[in-house]
Amino acid sequence: MSASNSKRGSYFLITPMALVFAIFLVIPLLTIVVVSFWDYDEYRILPDFILENYSYLLGTSVTWKIYLNTFKYAALTWAFTLGIGFTVAYFLAFHVRSLTWQIVLFMVCTIPFWTSNIIRMISWIPFLGRNGLLNQALMGAGVIHEPLEFLLFSDFAVVLADVHLYTLFMVVPIFNSMMRIDRSLIEAARDNGASAWATLRHVILPLSKPGIAIGSIFVITVVMGDFITVRLMSGGQSASVGLQISNEIGLLQYPAAAASAVVLLITVLLIVTALLRLVDIRKEL
Amino acid sequence: MTTDKIKSKSILPGKDVTRRGFLKGAAATAGVAIGSGAITGFPTIWAQNIKNVTLRQFGTGVSNINAVADKVKEDLGFTLQMTALDSDAVAQRAVTQPNSFDIADIEYWICKKVFPAGTLQPMDTNKIKNYDKISPLFISGKLTPDSKIAQGTAPHKVGFVEGPDSTDFASAPTQWMTLIPTIYNADTLGIRPDLIGRPITSWAELLNPEFKGKASILNIPSIGIMDAAMVSEAMGEITYGDKGNMTKDEIDQTIALMIKAKQDGQFRAFWKSFDESVNLMSSGEVVIQSMWSPAVAAVRSKGIECKYQPLKEGYRAWGGGIGLAKHLSGLELEAAYEYINWYLSGWVGAYLNRQGYYSAAPETAKKFMTEDEWGYWMEGKEAQGDIVSPEGKVMEKAGAVRDGGSYEERMGHVACWNSVMDENKHMVRKWNEFIAA
């Protein structure tokens, strides 16, 4: 009796969340899937069942190029944010001794977030431009004679902006994982004669893996879907999957955009699943 | 919308009464020109109810200006609500939300696809007082009787339908108009003469390797492909049957040429919004690009040299007009006609002319401009005094001459109009290939 009551109670308790998910996640997602099979012309979407959206999407070399490009951005951003994020988190967790300073420095890391993403991104443009601050400084110092063209409106600019925008997403979970590492393990490692490098490799790195995985999921999913950084920093000359979807929406090609969105969703889910297989995040939460 | 109505009823009753009294007075003295003098000839009941009318207009930012709505309130007494959107959103709203607007300010190339959707009603030209003042460009497609009709979706091709309930475009002018033309212009390349240092005379220069890494093109497929076509044709690479309605093969060739240029590093960036084009040009990242006239003015207003360069192959033109929603009827429909008549009566025309665009009824706009303004903007004459924007900002000093010369010189040299092609879907896909290449 009481068991069935508590069961009913649990169903009752999960209902609000389930409803919210159903209305704001499941139904829109199903709509996107349904629309991805519809036909369209310039200004209408036509309820129908066609596979043309998918067959074109998967059959054209444009899609493969765009996905390759998107993976390139995601991989580069991931590698740099991981390197920088891990170092920053390591410094905060193990070199800063007092908790107060840890908190203060951690807050300092979040200061850039007081300004919007787009503003921080756009501010790179006058800095990197042909007549920008960096080129002027380098030319003034006599390091170069011609302005460096690759700095702006290039893949370099896209990855730079992405790294700048998303490194904190790596710092936070890795720092969180590192703070949970039992300090006596590190002492034990040192007592057993491990060098700092060996301790890092055999103790800290494995124990930080859940944080790295969470950070990686944040960074990769954000970069995979990003369109505004790619558009602004590449000067519209590069494409990403997100940008492709945004263009299709702009041209009222909703079914094509829906098909691209479904394919992107599946791709990102596969990446996340793979990451979760490497690390048991639930243990950590 | 509701708050506006309440405001006019409760907060400003005194002002309303005064204005109505003023309007009645104006109606009595027929000589006084308020707008088109529209109030006369309508039953008194109409004059009294009109203040309760609210018309909702939407369109692109170029012509959906609050100054127009303010002037409508002042001259005609009713409320006009303006919503400015981008071209894509305009098309989408006109088709998918027909009850969300009363007046649609749309571009002719979009009209070609939007009007057949049946959300707009044709307008009776007998009710358009200044119909005969409308530029022949929108009636016959010819600015002067001997000019050639340009390629693409020329406004007159989609300007008329067969009857009041028809959505089929008529091949010759009829009594039923789809859009009343309001604004139009001829686009060309913008250049930085200080950084180029030599005359530019052809569209082909956009792909000249001399400007490698310093050129840009507009990334709105329907318009960008036309610029690309102007360039390809000027280079002698491709000959088109009709640039405004290319075959699949012509599209493929055009895009192939652009992809090659892109891979050779010709382009610095692509722009999509007005500000982007201004920034690219004023920062010197780009020295030659397809550009809109007010964007050139914006670069110049920063004190940076920029030229809206006339080219020997001619201009790529675009035009916009206002259409009436299907659901309009009764008093609101009358008010909408009144608004259209007022629109063509000159004040707006002068306002648009002063922004560097053109009024659909140039003759009437002339009455609202000084001789010097008319000379500078419309006749290609040297400015006698400072040329001031509608907002009162000095745009050009005395002695300046408008790029491209007079109205006839510019609009008479239109090579093609912005358009929607039959192979639009294919074109957009190829354009995406270009961007991804």
UniProtKB/TrEMBL annotation, chain A:
Alphabetized InterPro entries for the sequence: MetI-like, MetI-like_sf
UniProt source species: Thalassospira marina
GO CC, any one term: plasma membrane
Domain ABC transmembrane type-1: 67-275
Classification via CDD domains: TM_PBP2
Presence of keyword Cell membrane: yes
Gene3D superfamilies: MetI-like (1.10.3720.10)
Protein name in the entry: ABC transporter permease
Organism phylogeny: Bacteria, Pseudomonadati, Pseudomonadota, Alphaproteobacteria, Rhodospirillales
Family label: Belongs to the binding-protein-dependent transport system permease family. CysTW subfamily.
Keywords: Cell membrane, Membrane, Transmembrane, Transmembrane helix, Transport
Residue ranges that the Swiss-Prot or TrEMBL entry lists as coiled coil: none
Membrane-spanning intervals of the chain: 12-38, 73-92, 104-125, 156-175, 211-234, 254-279
Pfam families linked: BPD_transp_1
Entry's localization field: Cell membrane
Membrane-topology annotation of the record: Multi-pass membrane protein
GO biological process, one term: transmembrane transport
From TrEMBL, chain B:
Transmembrane segments: 21-46
InterPro entries: SBP, TAT_signal, TAT_signal_bac_arc
Keyword Protein biosynthesis: no
Taxonomy, superkingdom: Bacteria
Keyword terms of this UniProt record: Membrane, Signal, Transmembrane, Transmembrane helix
A Pfam match: SBP_bac_8
SUPFAM superfamilies xrefs: Periplasmic binding protein-like II (SSF53850)
PANTHER family: SPERMIDINE/PUTRESCINE-BINDING PERIPLASMIC PROTEIN, SPERMIDINE_PUTRESCINE-BINDING PERIPLASMIC PROTEIN
Record's protein name: ABC transporter substrate-binding protein
Lineage: Bacteria, Pseudomonadati, Pseudomonadota, Alphaproteobacteria, Rhodospirillales
